[in-house]
Specification:
heterodimer; A: alpha/beta; four-stranded parallel sheet; 43% helix; globular; B: alpha/beta; nine-stranded parallel sheet; 49% helix
């Protein structure tokens, strides 16, 4: 089931739809990644940082009370305990190390809510590489604390004042920067999206999650789980936990943000459920599924969880959904909030609102039997960042 | 009119080409016809008419802003082709847009629409030569030019591939990056022009805004000059737009003529 590919693609998805100014950089990155990904020295060094800096392996925790409440045996993969409070660091450490091996002196990145930017700042500091993060000016105001966190760790945050002053403008600006500085700069993409090799490379760096689960669940249960459930925006935590199980008899559920409902207007979607409702298109350098109108204009997506709020999805997930290897599902804002409170109250763990979508789906589906007897949920991050949002909803 | 016919005609006059970009529908669909006419009156040889896409990652902030104005003004691909069909100009028209709009319309339908509404060439800044096979096939079938970009960073192996795929003219990106003002353009442009070995005409774009620069570019050996942001800036100002578009086109064309060929 490994991709039946024309090198850069997952079935018909993926590819390299980028301006010519960036193609040489993409080619160089592909070549360098191929060179180092199986290099023992590179991997030894990466393992060291994952263990001693990021705090891996993250635990696989049997959530007894939640299991009882939802009626299925639930293990939580605790990515919320990774340094920085989310799985994002797995990828940025890998890419920062690669930046050093490539001899580049500078890292740039885009960030929406600031999670990926923070993980970049951490990795940049850990490797002593200058890091600059583009962030929509509106987001810098909404996420002041993350801006401050990045700055504390030595990263420069550049507010983007063009367009809607949010994530997509930050992406545009980061791509322009990269085009102008390709010789010295590595562009760190935070999810399994973008042109090849990013979807593959980010998946590989995040696969540490699923590899650990394989060992951990064997120790605890003596067998693989019946199903694995992960929230999906771009899809990096989902691909990270799914990929090592892709050839095993384990059902994989990708839970997208159902927002406030599965409705769409000419300009916006009330959700971010790209795998569930999107159509084929080309966005941000890849052929994938996207939320778009009848002309192909990309819709504004929506979710209570900023990390799921994306109109595209990783091309490999689109492929796996088409061939029936993963099951796309969705949870609404309100369902995610419910599940968020369940986990806080029953287990003493505050999950990210993103991860709460995965929990919410298990709550809904457990009684139907489709998840089997043992389910692993990827708790991709902790929810401290979301407390203001949750408090606002309580009022 | 075919792009190659235009370049042949200019060659006989020993003149470089002025290729003028504006975004269709900026700020409303109604204005576009008048603006195109003004550019042609000023001396534009080819019009590159942008079809606005919601996520224009290959454009700088100026053009991105124009694209946003056009989309807010209600621009769609259907209206675009209607506008193009209503233009009474006798020079080649080129559509510049992002691949998703072509993909969504259907590659063959898009190319056929180009033919029926009088568009001679297609530029897709986010379509690499690697991914262009299918669209190139339809372009060949319907005799529409598919125009590719080359950059200073383009490697020799990619250059060969791009030059083999592209027709109409080659779009040379004069400098790295996608935005803003620029200082010395001549040296790096000359180097790039020399590296691009082809009989297809070479047009240089990105960041050219006055007659003097246009003149310099033609003296590097280029066959044409592409100007976009400077025109879009005029549209953004909203003041005396047709007059000033015409005046700038005239200044640029005079600069080009002064350089000879």
């Amino acid at each position: 089931m490994k991709q039946e590919l024309k090198l850069t693609k997952f079935g018909k998805y993926g590819g390299q739809f980028v301006p010519e100014v960036l193609m040489p950089a993409i080619e160089e990155l592909t070549e360098q990644y191929e060179k180092y990904k199986d290099d023992p020295v590179f991997n030894k060094e990466l393992d060291y940082y994952l263990r001693d800096f990021a705090g891996r392996p993250s635990p696989l925790y049997l959530a007894k009370h939640l299991s009882k409440e939802y009626g299925v045996r639930i293990y939580l993969k605790r990515e919320d305990l990774v340094h920085g409070g989310a799985h994002k660091l797995n990828n940025t450490l890998g890419q920062a190390l690669l930046t050093r091996y490539m001899g580049k002196k500078r890292i740039i990145a885009e960030t929406g809510a600031g999670q990926h930017g923070t993980a970049c700042a951490m990795a940049g500091a850990a490797f002593g590489i200058k890091t600059e993060v583009y962030m929509g000016a509106r987001d810098t105001v909404r996420q002041r604390m993350n801006v401050y966190r990045m700055e504390l760790m030595g990263a420069k945050v550049i507010p983007v004042k063009s367009g809607s002053q949010t994530l997509k403008d930050a992406i545009n600006e980061a791509m322009r920067d990269w085009a102008a500085n390709v010789e010295t700069t590595h562009y760190m993409i935070g999810s399994v999206v973008g042109p090849h090799p990013y979807p593959m490379m980010v998946r590989d760096f995040q696969s540490v999650i699923g590899k650990e689960v394989r060992t951990q669940i064997m120790e605890k249960e003596g067998r693989f789980p019946d199903s694995i459930v992960a929230c999906t925006g771009g899809g990096s935590n989902a691909m990270g936990i799914f990929y090592p199980f892709i050839e095993d008899d384990v059902d994989l559920f990708a839970v997208e943000a159902g927002g406030s409902g599965m409705k769409v207007t000419e300009k916006e979607a009330l959700h971010s459920a790209t795998l569930c409702t999107g159509e084929e298109g080309i966005l941000h350098g890849m052929h994938t599924k996207v939320l778009q109108n009848k002309y192909g204009q990309i819709l504004e997506s929506s979710s209570i969880a900023a990390g799921l709020d994306y109109a595209g999805v990783g091309p490999e997930l689109a492929y796996l959904a088409d061939i029936g290897r993963i099951e796309p599902r969705n949870s609404m804002d309100s369902e995610a909030l419910d599940a968020f409170h369940d986990l806080c109250r029953l287990e003493g763990i505050i999950p990210a609102l993103e991860s709460s979508h995965a929990l919410a789906y298990v709550k809904k589906a457990a009684s139907s039997g489709e998840l089997g007897d043992i389910v692993v949920i990827n708790i991709s991050g902790r929810g401290d960042k979301d407390l203001e949002t949750v408090m606002g909803m309580k009022k | 009119m075919k792009i190659s016919d235009k370049f042949n005609e200019l060659k006989k006059k020993r003149e470089g080409a002025l290729i003028a970009y504006i975004c269709a529908g900026d700020p409303t669909p109604e204005g576009t016809k008048e603006y195109v006419t003004a550019l042609v009156r000023g001396g534009a040889d080819i019009i590159e008419l942008g079809l606005p896409f919601s996520d224009p990652t290959a454009d700088g902030p100026t053009i991105q802003a124009g694209i946003e104005r056009a989309l807010n003004g209600g621009m769609t691909p259907d209206i675009y082709f209607k506008i193009v069909g209503s233009l009474k100009v006798h020079i080649p028209l080129v559509v510049m847009t992002y691949y998703n709009l072509i993909f969504k319309r259907g590659l063959e339908k898009f190319v056929k629409d180009c033919v029926s509404f009088g568009i001679s060439g297609i530029i897709v800044p986010d379509l690499s030569a690697e991914e262009s096979g299918e669209l190139a096939g339809f372009c060949k079938q319907y005799n529409v030019d598919l125009i590719f970009l080359v950059a200073p960073t383009t490697t020799e192996s990619r250059m060969k591939r791009i030059l083999a795929e592209g027709t109409g003219f080659v779009y040379l990106v004069a400098r790295m990056g996608v935005t803003g003002a620029r200082k010395d353009i001549a040296a790096s442009t000359r180097e790039l022009v020399e590296r691009v070995k082809t009989t297809t005409p070479k047009a240089v774009g990105f960041g050219i805004s006055n007659g003097k620069q246009a003149s310099e570019i033609i003296r590097t050996g280029a066959d044409g000059v592409i100007v976009g942001s400077a025109f879009v800036d005029i549209i953004a100002s909203g003041k005396d737009v047709p007059e000033r578009l015409e005046a700038l086109a005239r200044e640029l064309k005079e600069g080009i003529r002064a350089a000879g060929k």
